[in-house]
Amino acid sequence: MIIVGERINTSNKRIARAVEERDAAFIAKVARKQARAAADYIDVNAGTFLEREADCLCWMVETVQAEVDVPLCLDSTSPDALACAVECHRGEPMINSISLEEDRLRGLIPVIKSRPCKVVALCMFRDSMPTSAEERMAAGVELVGRLEEAGVERGRIYLDPLVQPVSVDFRSVDHVLGALGGLRERVMGIGTICGLSNVSFGLPRRRLINRCFLSLCMAQGLSAAILDPTDGQLMATLLASEALLGSDEYCQAFIEAHLAGRLKPEV
Amino acid sequence: MIIVGERINTSNKRIARAVEERDAAFIAKVARKQARAAADYIDVNAGTFLEREADCLCWMVETVQAEVDVPLCLDSTSPDALACAVECHRGEPMINSISLEEDRLRGLIPVIKSRPCKVVALCMFRDSMPTSAEERMAAGVELVGRLEEAGVERGRIYLDPLVQPVSVDFRSVDHVLGALGGLRERVMGIGTICGLSNVSFGLPRRRLINRCFLSLCMAQGLSAAILDPTDGQLMATLLASEALLGSDEYCQAFIEAHLAGRLKPEV
What we know:
The first copy, chain A, is 47% helix and 15% strand. By secondary structure, chain A is of the alpha/beta class.
């Protein structure tokens, strides 16, 4: 399972202030904490800065990479901001995200093809959020086709079925799980990715909901998750689920994490 | 989800002592705690008493029913002990369990037909533990056929795919999940049941493993679980999983449990 640390996002007020004030020490600290907590990528998102997004995102990339050796997940809806962020990123980033929207496709394909990277591809049609598993799968299949046509190899693509709050639609998790399982059958060799925390929006006990959701997605073969790696209960759930689902032979990683004191203790 | 409280089992030394000493107050206390924690059935198992099993089991049934109004899950491999326990049980018990073993089938079918009750049916062939999802499904289908032939309605049957420790075989959960999902498709209207705690045998952090396993089984439509209802984290996981899986519309039960302080708080 590829872990993408979600904490450096300017939708969080404390992060927004740090970016506004160019408080590199604060951003570096949040990056370091996530890297120590086993993040494989660190997400950076400056979407709230609107027309200053590209500048802010590049500063965030440089600030994080000055502190940790982990590659970044460059998170924006703007092809221009992503093109700038990719330019100042060392190594192989994850580009988050592309969709079937023509501007985004046209703007990002040259960026993706210009260097080794992974890309998150959203399972939605041009103008609206998907409302079923079937619609997510259809959009995912079409998007993989468009990317492959343009020369992007399937092994670099992570399909995101777009998690909606279960408080808004009680069938939304069912749709996401159906799409995750279905896409891995229909598109051999494809990766899948979810942002976990949207699922619990509007509900109490969000961390509890998020970690149950993680287990459920893992059972459908999820290959990457955008989550808070500093949430000890969540990471313990991840390791336990890997042991249960047979991807941790002899439960070796789970037992090692236990012996090393890395499993958050019971209450 | 039907919750069967697992705590009154003489494989636990403290329970065995209480049964040996006919310490009704202790057994009543364990029963009351489970009933308060929302158990729909309370399991009673005196298997360790061997030739005294039937006597002990009947005493346990009377002791628990003197204390709480919850029906019991009568848990034994012996048709004779089950027949005695059913006799002294008021109301509709769950009989746990029957299998394709001829003595068990012949001994129990008249007991099951003699009164309203549910029955747990083990997905194994006569002489050995199943080693795949397919074998579990084949045994389950055959057993349902035998029970229906004998006049037991499908709606009373709960198939148990037999959970093995993941520490012994890292694919065992995969087999159980495959069998749970498959049986519900192949045998319309059937119930399924699992004992959770066997899955974590031999591993550290058993309660963490058990609750992740519960979510995974629920995603495959599990209709009943034998578990410790006094484990607050487990019950919180159960409620969160029901909300996620769409069986708790508008997340109403989850939110109510939160407001009533019934969700064990985060660390």
